[in-house]
Write a structure and sequence with these properties.
This protein is of the alpha+beta class. Helices cover 16% and strands 28% of the residues. It is rod-shaped, with a radius of gyration of 67 Å.
């Protein structure tokens, strides 16, 4: 009994009839085909069978529409004649795709999703290229089973067979072993899910039915009119997505997104306010300040924000008018400082000024005395010295020439200073400056022989009784 009963399929055998296939092996290949027919349910509405054999040329022994009975197919195989020529495998594949599987030759329309299966049996290396034409054949929706006998290059078989190779590529040592393959193919063609046998072309899911298969789409997609591909549904419009801010469709599903200024929480639904300034790409030269939905840039004190809203330009702090400097305001890099006029120093409050004691500075250079003035200072020398032209050093001078020596009568210069002296008839008082009048007769040089008598301004000589003063006014 046929295990493929009721299963629709368009099956074309491609038989290598080259001279390398010996007559005895050619007959064994026919036996392989007889065995394959035993489990197929032959008929116009179930399995249709076609056969092509090739050598240097391609012979279409019978097409998919030729026979509806298994006995007629077996008779055609028995009468098939060995070509015994070259091995143009690529040419045979091209003929199969372009001719054997056309609706004119009996293949059912593609939209009916009836599996199209080609089974090629070969024992040699092709004399033409097969890679490209085999790929085009598979891409047209034809599943290729490649059977190699003897010393066939396995890579050639893989170039022809469909993927996965373990289900579609077979290599046996000789034609005697090929007789064992029908049982294997029976399970692959009859027992297997149609979706696993055919190149169904479904973008998402292939679902087998009793006679064919249909394509379906995953959740969130709808099947397109071509009945193969799928388009994403607008899940945000049809589902209670639960997104706090925005719902965005993605292939087969949706994601929640947040408005600018917010970030998605771990529940992937709700949103929290974002710190724009923490992102690092705000571009603010000085400060970044978050706002409700974005951020603004601000500048350090002493700078103003430029029209670009990001960079800052230096501000004239002193022009602001609130600097509080008593004398001068001077702009600095980030702010301002107060300075004082010459002759003043800045107080610890950094704003007010106090008069400067220039002489307290070690730079005045005065040799004797330093005297502060309104805006500066000058040097002065001790008594007995005068200032040199350098206005700093002093040199010694006559002290008596100074108006302040204080001597009442005479001033006499000494080595390092001066002394006061008194006129004749006077003596110097203990203060060393003033003089007191003395009696002239007290002086040892008055010259009177007898008596000396003081007068207002001098003295006169007199004689003792019995003597008269000589004309010299001294002797008697």
């Amino acid at each position: 009994e046929s295990t493929c009963k009721g299963k629709p399929m368009d099956l074309v055998f491609i038989i290598d009839s080259s001279r390398s296939v010996r007559p005895n092996d050619y007959e064994k290949m026919k036996e392989f085909l007889y065995s394959m027919l035993t489990f197929l349910d032959i008929g116009p509405d179930v399995t249709r069978v076609g056969l092509v054999q090739y050598g240097s040329t391609v012979n279409n022994e019978f097409s998919l529409k030729t026979y509806n009975k298994k006995a007629d197919i077996e008779k055609a195989i028995r009468e098939m004649i060995h070509l015994a020529t070259g091995t143009m495998t690529g040419l045979a594949l091209q003929y199969t795709m372009n001719v054997a599987f056309t609706e004119e030759e009996g293949a059912r329309p593609l939209e009916l999703n009836v599996p199209r299966v080609a089974m090629i049996v070969t024992d040699g290396r092709p004399q033409d290229t097969v890679d490209e034409i085999a790929a085009r054949t598979r891409n047209s929706g034809i599943v290729i089973f490649a059977v190699g006998v003897g010393r066939v290059d396995i890579n050639t078989l893989k170039a022809m067979g469909s993927r996965p190779y373990e289900d579609h590529v077979f290599l046996v040592a000789n034609f005697s072993q090929i007789e064992k393959l029908p049982t294997l193919f029976q399970s692959k063609l009859c027992d297997a899910d149609i979706c696993s046998v055919v190149d169904h072309g479904c973008a998402h899911i292939c679902v087998s039915s009793a006679e064919s298969y249909v394509c379906k789409c995953r959740t969130g997609y709808t099947l397109n009119p071509d009945q193969k591909t799928c388009s994403s549904q607008d899940l945000c419009a049809v589902e209670n997505h639960g997104c706090e801010h925005l719902c965005v469709n993605v292939p087969g599903s949706y994601i929640c997104q947040c408005r600018e200024g917010y970030k998605l929480n771990e529940d992937r639904k709700t949103c929290s306010r974002i710190d724009f300034c923490a992102s690092g790409d705000h571009g603010c030269e000085h400060y970044c300040v978050n706002t409700e939905d974005s951020y603004v840039c601000q500048c350090h004190q002493g700078f103003t924000l430029n029209p670009d809203g990001r960079t800052c330009s230096r501000t004239d702090f002193c022009a602001l008018g609130d600097h509080g400097c008593e004398h001068f305001c001077v702009d600095t890099e980030d702010s301002y400082v107060c300075q004082c006029r010459q002759g003043f120093t800045l107080n610890p409050d950094g704003r007010t000024c106090s008069r400067l004691d220039y002489c307290a500075l070690e730079i005045h250079g005065c040799e004797h005395e330093c005297v502060n003035t309104e805006d500066s200072y000058f040097c002065r020398c001790y008594s007995g010295f005068v200032l040199n032209p350098d206005k700093k050093t002093c040199r010694k001078t006559g002290y008596c020439a100074l108006s302040n020596h204080g001597c009442e009568h005479d001033c006499v210069n000494t080595e390092e200073s001066f002394v006061c002296t008194c006129y004749t008839g006077f003596i110097l008082n203990p203060d060393g400056k003033t003089c007191t009048k003395l009696g002239y007769c007290a002086l040892s040089n008055h010259g009177c022989e007898h008596n000396c008598v003081n007068t207002e301004e001098s003295f006169v000589c007199t004689c003792r009784s019995g003597f008269i003063l000589n004309p010299d006014g001294k002797t008697c």
